[in-house]
Specification:
heterodimer, A: alpha+beta, Arc Repressor Mutant, subunit A, Glutaredoxin, 2 domains, four-stranded mixed β-sheet, B: Ubiquitin-like (UB roll), Alpha-Beta Plaits, Rossmann fold, 3 domains, five-stranded mixed β-sheet, 17 strands, globular
């Protein structure tokens, strides 16, 4: 893990405060989450205290501190999606995956996350599964979407 | 440039470039503030200092708005008061209603403003407080439920101490002040200085209370209770007992503690005398530069975290508390008596220092508890002692006396002055000792002084405020001529403004009064040099083994 983190850090300018968010994003993209071990090397590299790194990382909803499931579902709860019935989709997802938002299923297969706004309001409600976006989702579509993603991964 | 503005229909003078709040305060007009910290950049977060300025549609935060010559200001109009009331009412909505159980009851800014603004009923329903109290640290207890998110602890920890243990975590409604990875304080990078406690307006940060253990020891018939009383505490309690700030009550406190039942009282400052004496001897024969002081435990912890490579520069001499602790420990181990030793100082970091393994003798702590000035005041009140009707008493022999030099340690630069006096005296240059070294008494954060003994020049640097010292130490490797001695005090303005001192909203005048008092005590003292103190001479004749006077410094791993 240590080596992985230092390899990622090399892509960013050292000692620059404004590189903090891109660095955190880079780590999350590579590792899927921000591990505890990354906080100290990042702070050291950027040249700010660890508390400031942790403060910024907890400020934004996009940063995760736990590894996500192999099938990671993000559901938009922005205004447009909310109006178009995203909450019923969320309920269906919770029931199907048997986890609450922010949780990872015990077998590590699924994780569920609420996004503020994905930015595709004309296609509301929207969910994103492992990078694939599904527009105009209804609660009855959930099973089918999850099956599609399972097939992709052969889970 | 001066100009006149109108405040509450009365003209007042204002300077160009200052904020509205500064102009108001200079003219004696009080405006409530919560997040504002004198001398630091304003954040404008709490909105308590809002005022009405004619011509502006909204209310203006006076702490962060520059004053201008055309301004007509209302500081206490109904509209302003309503806005301030709303701020406090909203803060109270997420604040527990448990003032009775709070250490800051009676000295809380939130409580005070709620009272001043005449808030008599709960406007918004209270929110629950799932946050748990962090009691892990030897020194600082954190109760996040009482936090109003003003950010004063964050700023003092970051800007003045340079440690940044605390920071805002998460966002909006779920924001709280926490440590890196939400670790408990004891394993965070906190250096126990306690400046955040002094900065906190409410009871969200407070000292770990050790008065209970002292109380128990007092009522244990087999235990001899020994108290070490610091003169810096003696000059800092006056205002708490209704006496003029800065008045020296050390010997009254001795009398009070005897009345409470303390068996033996020793002069803590004797430790300073011995420290200065030993340090002077070390500096005169040391052939390395720089030598850094070890008297401030918060600084020592900082060094172990941030400058493990500089640990070899630290003098091989224990801190004043541990020198005298080791001496007492030796005396009573020999006599086989069961003792409980308590140090009473303005310092929070001593609560952590006494538990350091290297300070133990035969695996036994030599100092059992450290009380801060605040705890001492509570402890005396608990026992119903009336300070006014006490006659001053002297501490017990053989550790009863102190020289003027030993008293100066409470103020930044004082330690250096004491060591310089000792060095001059050791080289039979006592005639060169000046009553006061002005260069070391200025109010600058970094003070320098050079003097000569037998054609050898010595360069002393005295720094207060841990962040300033950190920056100085980072430049140390590139210095062509490092100083001979670096005195470091973690707290800004030194021990007179220590983390364990009484909490005042505007403490500048108190710090000034205490510093002045220390200098006066030195001037009045007939003993100027540590070695003139008979207690130091006696100590010299029956000196403890060097092994128990030498500290051990180790790198400390923490998330910095």
């Amino acid at each position: 893990m240590k080596e992985e983190i230092s390899t990622i850090l090399k892509h960013y300018p050292q000692g620059k405060r404004d590189a903090l968010i891109p660095v955190l994003q880079g780590i999350q993209e590579q590792l899927g989450f921000i591990p505890e071990e990354a906080i100290a090397p990042v702070a050291d590299y950027i040249g700010i205290p660890t508390s400031k790194v942790y403060g910024v990382a907890t400020f934004y909803d996009q940063f995760r501190f736990t590894r996500c499931g192999r099938i990671h579902v993000r559901i938009c709860q922005g205004t447009a999606c909310h109006v178009m019935g995203a909450s019923s989709v969320l309920k269906a997802l919770e029931k199907e995956l048997r986890i609450a938002p922010g949780e990872v299923s015990k077998d590590g297969r699924y994780s569920l996350e609420i996004a503020g706004c994905i930015g595709a309001c004309s296609l509301a409600p929207v969910i994103e599964v492992n990078g694939t976006f599904y527009p105009l989702v209804k609660k009855d579509d959930i099973k089918e979407i999850l099956q599609k993603e399972k097939n992709k991964l052969n889970v | 440039m001066h100009f006149t503005i109108e405040v509450n229909n009365i003209p007042i003078k204002a300077h160009k470039g200052e904020t509205i709040l500064q102009a108001l305060q200079r003219n004696g007009i009080q405006v409530p503030t919560l997040c504002y910290m004198a001398g630091k950049l304003p954040t404008g977060a709490c909105r308590m200092c809002v005022v009405e300025v004619e011509g502006y549609p909204g209310l203006i935060p006076s702490c962060s708005h520059p004053v201008e010559d055309w301004m007509k200001i209302q500081t206490h109009s109904p509209r302003v008061i309503q806005a301030r009331k709303a701020v406090i009412e909203l803060l109270l909505a997420s604040h527990p209603d448990d003032c009775f159980y709070c250490v800051r009851n009676g000295n809380c800014e939130l409580q005070r403003y709620a009272e001043e603004l005449n808030i008599r009923e709960r406007k918004y329903p209270s929110r629950s407080h799932p946050a748990t109290i962090d009691k892990s640290s030897y020194s600082i207890t954190r109760d996040p439920a009482k936090c109003i998110l003003c950010g004063r602890c964050i700023r003092i920890c970051d800007e003045v101490i340079g440690v940044s243990t605390l920071e805002y975590m998460r966002r909006g409604n779920s924001m709280y002040i926490g440590t890196t990875l939400d670790k408990p304080m004891n394993i965070s990078n906190c250096i126990d200085c306690g400046q955040c406690v002094v900065a906190c307006p409410t009871g969200a940060l407070y000292e770990r209370d050790d008065t209970d253990s002292v109380h128990k020891a007092l009522y244990d018939k087999d235990t001899k209770v020994i108290a070490l009383i610091d003169a810096t505490t003696g000059i800092s309690v006056a205002e708490k007992f209704g006496v003029k700030a800065g008045k020296n009550l050390t010997n009254i406190l001795v009398a009070a503690l005897r009345k409470i039942g303390v068996d033996i009282l020793y002069n803590y400052n004797l430790g300073n005398d011995i420290y200065a004496h030993e340090m002077a001897r070390y500096l005169l024969q040391a052939n390395r530069k720089p030598v850094i002081s070890t008297s401030c435990p918060a600084w020592v912890k900082y060094a172990e975290e941030y400058f493990p490579s500089h640990l070899t520069y630290l003098a091989p001499i224990k801190s004043p508390m541990e020198i005298i602790g080791a001496t007492i420990g030796r005396d009573y181990t020999a006599s086989g008596e069961k003792t409980f030793t308590v140090a009473i100082t303005p310092c929070m970091a001593k609560k952590a220092e006494l538990a350091r393994a290297c300070n133990a003798i035969n695996n036994q702590q030599v100092i059992d508890a450290a009380l801060t000035t605040r705890e001492l005041v509570r402890f005396i009140r608990l026992h119903g002692i009336d300070i006014e009707h006490l006659e001053p008493e002297l501490p017990n022999d053989p550790y009863s006396t102190v020289s003027g030099a030993g008293l100066l340690f409470g103020s930044p630069g004082g330690e250096s002055e004491a060591i310089i006096r000792s060095m001059l005296a050791m080289q039979e240059k006592s005639a060169l000792i000046s009553a006061r070294i002005q260069k070391l008494r200025a109010s600058k954060p970094i003070k320098e002084y050079t003097f000569e003994i037998n054609d050898k020049s010595y360069h002393f640097v005295a720094i207060h405020g841990m962040a300033t010292a950190g920056a100085y130490l980072r430049s140390l490797p590139s210095m062509k001529q490092p100083p001979d001695y670096i005195e470091i005090m973690a707290c800004p303005d030194g021990c007179v403004n220590g983390g364990g001192q009484p909490i005042h909203k505007n403490n500048e005048s108190f710090i000034k009064a205490r510093t002045k008092s220390l200098f006066e005590l030195d001037e009045k003292s007939s003993l100027k040099i540590p070695i003139q103190n008979p207690a130091v001479k006696k100590w010299e004749q029956n000196k403890p083994d060097t092994s128990i006077l030498t500290p051990v410094f180790k790198q400390r791993d923490a998330l910095l």
